[in-house]
Automatic annotation (TrEMBL):
It is found in: Nucleus. This is Uncharacterized protein. PANTHER family: HL01030P-RELATED. GO terms for molecular function: histone H3K4 methyltransferase activity; transcription coactivator activity; zinc ion binding. It comes from the Eukaryota. Signal peptide: none annotated. Keywords: Metal-binding, Nucleus, Repeat, Transcription, Transcription regulation, Zinc, Zinc-finger. GO terms for cellular component: MLL3/4 complex. Its main location: nucleus. The lineage of its organism: Eukaryota, Metazoa, Spiralia, Lophotrochozoa, Mollusca. GO terms for biological process: positive regulation of transcription by RNA polymerase II.
Amino acid sequence: MCLICGSKNPGFGCQWQRNYTHCGPCHSKISCPYCRMKYQEDELIIQCVQCYR
């Protein structure tokens, strides 16, 4: 179960992250799902037009 949103599934086309404690959509708010680079606090995150993350 995701500790951030409470979801019981990882999300469409996603995998569980951080030892099964974050669903894919919640984890993508912490780091880039493509390159895995962590976001900085107050950094502007642009939504992907292909995957809507």
